[in-house]
Amino acid sequence: MKTPVEILPAILFLLMAATPCRGVIAVTWLDDPLVLAGGTTQYLPLDLNGDSITDYVFAAGIGFVGGRPEGDNQHLIWPSGGSNIGGQIEPLAEGVEIGSDSGNNTWIEWFGGVDGYDGLILCVSGGCVGRFVGQRAYMGVEFDIDGAMHYGWLDLYVASLSAGAAIYGWGYETEPGISIRAGAVTVPEPSTTMLIIGGLLTIGCTLRRAKARRG
User: Fold this and answer.
1) β 74-79/109-112 pair status
2) Full 3-state SS string of the chain
3) Which tens digits make up the pLDDT trace of 158-202?
4) Cβ(16)–Cβ(190) under 8 Å?
5) Which residue from 14, 45, 191, 213 puts its CA 20 to 30 A from 74's CA?
6) Together in a domain, 96 and 11
7) Looking at the predicted structure, is the pLDDT value of residue 207 above 80?
8) CB contact set of 117 (below 8 Å; sequence gap of 6+)
9) How would you label 53-85 residue by residue, b for 16+ Cβ within 10 Å and e otherwise?
């Protein structure tokens, strides 16, 4: 019969196989925020990962600021209802998970693949409306890098009394398909599985020393 020390490598392999790999969170903080003002027509393309490919375009016009994902990219919105008509970009609090399951919530969904812009703020004579109005929060994004989808966030502020917005920076998971928390700048602390692995390693070392003393 195999000893605990001898079966430890197999246990570790199974645990590590069950633990999703995490990459590194790449973060860009801007020395000066990118400002969008709704007084004149303005377009702001963003390349989130520095590969010279535009991932998102923000636009400002008379009384309006909004954003649009390029290609197959998407962002999280509060849907307006109906089929494929978009909605308002949803402000996310720090720590909200952004990933493939985010669109399963009843209050937000992933959206992209259209030519129009989803709103951050719309101002008319009666005032300004939009779910992002008057807040500094995070926008959840899903974008393509070399044929694989990555999840990330943008740090945005949207004005409350006039059509305007500012972008302070962004971050994304370098490992494709792995979710990220809004505002996260480092990978999470070790998971329970990894803590178990560490404990098993400690037990293995103890057993090995005990066996050596008996021998």
Assistant:
1) antiparallel
2) CCCHHHHHHHHHHHHHHCCCCCCCEEEEEEEEEEEEECCCCEEEEECCCCCCCCCEEEEEECCEEEEEECCCCEEEEEECCCCCCCEEECCECCCCEECCCHHHCCCCEEEECCCCCEEEEEEECCEEECCCCCCEEEEEEEEEECCEEEEEEEEEEECCCCCEEEEEEEEEECCCCCCEECCCCCCCCCCHHHHHHHHHHHHHHHHHHHHHHHC
3) 999 999 999 999 999 999 999 999 999 996 555 544 555 555 545
4) no
5) 191
6) no
7) no
8) 57, 58, 59, 64, 66, 67, 68
9) bebbebbbbeebbbbbbbeebbbbbbbeeeeee
Do 211 and 170 fall within a single domain? no
- Considering the domain architecture, whether residues 135 and 212 belong to the same structural domain is answered as no
Number of domains in the chain: 2
Q: How far is CA 84 from the centre of its chain?
A: 22
The answer to whether residues 76 and 102 belong to one domain is: yes
Q: Tell me the residue range of the domain where 163 lies.
A: 24-186
Q: pTM of the prediction? A: 0.78
Q: Give the separation between CA 117 and CA 37, rounded to whole angstroms.
A: 15
Whether 90 and 134 map to the same domain: the answer is yes
Asked if residues 152 and 171 have their Cβ atoms less than 8 Å apart, the reply is yes
Q: Are strands 127-129 and 87-89 parallel, antiparallel or unpaired?
A: unpaired
Give the closest residue to 79 by CA, choosing from 100, 61, 105, 45: 105
